[in-house]
Amino acid sequence: MSVYISQALALTLAATTDNDAGIIGYDNLVTITNVAATSEAVNYPATNLANPSTASFWRSAVTTTQYVTVNATGTADYVGLARHNLTAATVSVEAYDGSNWNEVFAEQVLGSNAPAMLRFTSTAASGFRLKIQNATVAPEIAILYVGELLELQRRIYVGHTPITYGRQTTVQSGRSESGNYLGRVILQERLSTSVQLENLTPNWYRETMEPFVIAAKSQPFFYSWRPTTYPEEVGFCWLTNDAVPVNQRANGMMSIGLDMGGFAL
Questions:
Q1: How far apart are CA 193 and CA 248, in angstroms?
Q2: Tens of pLDDT along 34-66?
């Protein structure tokens, strides 16, 4: 589970005063009518990428270089991937300016099949595409997001469990009649965490955070609490309770708690 940052964006972030505030990827240009792939295996079309379910996915029929293209006009600064098998594959992102495809995220080898966020400089384009090279098995992806990140206003400090460590396991243990331990079976694995966001300025909450809260009632999202310091602690998440803001201070500053579940490999 990692946040991968393009070189150009890394230089920009290095110059900012706070480059380690949490990020949320919920904005998504992908729809059933605008997504296509170079190759599709039978029963695994690229249109499955527009479905937020991790049980439904696109699969290529071949291992040669693949393009997954989103033919949509908009602005994006990240690509989110979840429930994929791209370990050891090389991925990059290109944007279409109306005449040419230009690389906005340079080739990167993914180190695992965990959720990943590919960050790049904000780019307005009439199309975006994910390039997959050197795959050792036919590539497959269940979740593809392309859009603009929500950057949290404050850093997240103490009292937070990173989503990758918030393991919740349901097990069944067996014992013999004489009390001997016979083993256990894992019935279900999941991830969960919660985060409390404090001292949010009134305008920022209303203009930036509230649209996410509304969308997240029904839509999952990518989440990284410290993308620079802990880039591997990324989750593909969903809200498990209503997120309700509170007027925290007399000056109008607000707080809100987010309870999340997450996809576990």
A1: 22
A2: 999 999 999 999 999 999 999 999 999 999 999
